Amino acid sequence: MVPREIKKADKRPVKNGGKRNRAVRVISITSGKGGVGKTNIAANMSYILSKMGKKVLLVDADAGLANVDVVLGITSEYNLHHVLNGEKRLPDVIVEGPGGFKILPAASGIQSMAELSKGQKLTLLEELNDLDEDLDFVLIDTAAGIAGNVMYFNMAAKEIIVVVTPDPTSLTDAYALIKVMYQNYAVKRFMILANMVEGSQEAEKIYIRLSNAADHFLNISVDYLGHICSDRKVRAAVRKQSLLVEMYPDSKASEGLFEVTQGLYQRHPEDAASGTIRFFGGATVDNND
Ligand SMILES: Nc1ncnc2c1ncn2[C@@H]1O[C@H](COP(=O)(O)OP(=O)(O)OP(=O)(O)O)[C@@H](O)[C@H]1O
Ligand SMILES: [Mg+2]
């Protein structure tokens, strides 16, 4: 099944004086390798965007482990499992996170949820389409790797953030993910976010390696979204089940998260890859170099 894009159904009644059908940006946060920081990034970005006055839904699509709950210390009575089984509707399941963003909790620890059936995927998309919320952003925190579910959620998103760390296997796994998304699903647009780096130089090096490989072997160009420094405060916030940007807004990693989220916010989805490597800071690097 080729997943349909998650978007507002045009035929629904118009609310808010006719402004109801503003476009919702559906962005997946994904990676080839696990443990690269996706859940932390997704949760902190959701918080920053909602503090900017945007309506955000964070979808915990890591059906194997309900990470978002853990990071935020949120307990929810119902989850995606109940929606997919038709027991509950989405609004009954969505909970409020810090800063007012909404969270769609994943089904926790239920093995069979790791691979959703086609029917369940369809139910989920329909439920998202029917959601009676005026959303600006839907951020999807995916599982790692190239399993069917990850691909499905990435396909459902119009914008894909691939999180990479300096760990060499993270880079090769990110490339593998991009390759599969491109070759099997014709996806050509990716934003690279370097996490747990020492600074911008290391991040740009990672990006250039990935970008060169994508350009050389796949003939596609990938965008650079930015970097987040390795910072002990990240783990400290997780331990306290608090959001980094709320608890330690002046930390190095928070600085990166604010910058990256701002860059993402200002970005127009149609800006994506077009033959030259773009750094959001403004500088461009020619792909042919
Ligand atoms: N910038 C950072 N600096 C230091 N530690 C970090 C940073 N980003 C994430 N971490 C730590 O790395 C670990 C993994 O983070 P996280 O759970 O967000 O990764 P993930 O990609 O969602 O993992 P999974 O693939 O298992 O879902 C956590 O302990 C987190 O605190
Ligand atoms: Mg995670």
If you had to describe this structure to a student in words, what would you say it looks like?
By secondary structure, the chain is of the alpha/beta class. It has one domain (31-286): P-loop containing nucleotide triphosphate hydrolases (Rossmann fold). Helices cover 40% and strands 16% of the residues. It has helices spanning 38-51, 67-72, 80-84, 90-93, 118-130, 148-156, 168-185, 200-218, 232-239, 244-247, 252-266, and strands at residues 25-30, 56-60, 95-96, 102-104, 137-141, 159-164, 191-197, 223-229, 276-278, 284-286. Strands 3-4-2-5-1-6-7-8 form an eight-stranded mixed sheet, with helices on both faces. A two-stranded antiparallel ribbon has the order 9-10. The chain starts with 24 loop residues before the first strand and ends with a strand. The model is unreliable at 1-21 and 272-289 (pLDDT under 50). Adenosine-5'-triphosphate binds at residues 31, 34-40, 62, 67, 144, 195-196, 228, 230-231, 234-235, 238, 253. The site of adenosine-5'-triphosphate has 20 residues, from helix 1, strand 7 and helix 9.
